[in-house]
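Severity: low
Component: inverse-folding endpoint
Summary: output formatting inconsistent between runs
Steps to reproduce: submit the following structure tokens with default settings.
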């Protein structure tokens, strides 16, 4: 069965922004448009990623313009998904649907400007790209909103203001790059003020299967499951398991075991490193090098999972999620 695929996270936009001479068909970035097509990807979430650094908000805005231009330049291949009807159309079309997310809120607010600017700049990005599916407050490090995966910092005052701003806006909160303290702080604030903010982990695996600060502890994964969010499994070797590519399937089975049958999806996290970290090469196991791999991964799950699960993991869980939050 050739399932339509939805993937919750790639870094094509930051590659196009940061790398000189970059183009969307470059074979060394796993989410190049040819690989997405070969993998039957019908919706790819494209992250606006910036570091926390001077000029980050300009970079975030620039990536939103890159997205807009990309959809124009590749109009015969890409299709903007901005509501339920364009989502349904993308799933049934020959094109690759695309929607933006924001990975690191520094992409719309510098560390040293008034917080009110954040909301104006976020609106500007949204007006460029028409829809933002989710926001993660941090990347690995710490910023004015809170602490990232490799820190112990929790939710800060500006993070509380950003949550308040997101209330009722149909933009999900992504826990993939939070410290545990930040994730629990965000949950507490959402609960305390009864905020209407959907919760996801766009590109994360399970700490119970591979112990890494980028992976979700079961308590947080269960919280996402309970709130009818989604969890996109990440393909990076460093987070799956450095040595054994088949641990990917164990992450899937673990997700099902803790109740995530209707939660699991893909969040491959394809990016291009112009200066690769020698300790992490190769970034992906051979069987997950680019986006053409999804059908094979699903095929390998046949017989290991309940009937109907492959349909859910490949696309249906995300479609159901988006239908819940965008109405
Ligand atoms: Zn990431």
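Observed output (run 2 of 3):
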């Amino acid at each position: 069965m050739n399932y339509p695929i939805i993937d919750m996270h790639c870094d094509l936009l930051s590659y196009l922004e940061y790398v000189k001479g970059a183009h969307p068909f470059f074979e060394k970035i796993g989410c190049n448009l040819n690989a997405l097509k070969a993998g039957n990807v019908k919706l790819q979430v494209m992250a606006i990623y910036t570091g926390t650094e001077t000029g980050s908000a300009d970079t975030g805005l620039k990536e939103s313009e890159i997205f807009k231009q990309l959809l124009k330049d590749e109009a015969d291949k890409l299709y903007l998904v901005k509501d339920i009807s364009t989502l349904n159309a993308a799933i049934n079309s020959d094109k690759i649907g695309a929607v933006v997310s924001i990975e690191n809120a520094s992409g719309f607010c510098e560390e040293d400007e008034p917080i009110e600017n954040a909301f104006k700049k976020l609106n500007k990005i949204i007006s460029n790209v028409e829809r933002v599916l989710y926001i993660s407050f941090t990347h690995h490090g710490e910023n004015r909103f809170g602490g990232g995966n490799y820190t112990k910092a929790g939710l800060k005052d500006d993070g509380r203001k950003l949550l308040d701003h997101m209330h009722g806006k149909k933009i999900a909160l992504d826990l993939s790059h939070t410290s545990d303290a930040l994730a629990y702080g965000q949950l507490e604030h959402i609960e305390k003020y009864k905020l209407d903010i959907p919760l996801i982990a766009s590109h994360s695996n399970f700490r119970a299967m591979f112990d890494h600060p980028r992976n979700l502890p079961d308590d947080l994964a269960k919280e996402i499951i309970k709130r009818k969010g989604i969890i996109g499994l990440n393909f990076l070797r460093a987070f799956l398991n450095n040595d054994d590519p088949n641990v990917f399937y164990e992450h899937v089975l673990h997700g099902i075991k803790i109740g995530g049958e209707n939660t699991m999806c893909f969040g491959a996290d394809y990016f291009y490193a112009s200066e690769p970290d020698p300790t992490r090469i190769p970034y992906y196991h051979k069987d997950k090098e680019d986006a053409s791999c999804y059908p094979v991964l699903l095929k390998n799950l046949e017989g290991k999972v309940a009937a109907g699960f492959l349909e859910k993991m490949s696309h249906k869980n995300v479609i159901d999620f988006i239908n819940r939050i965008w109405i």
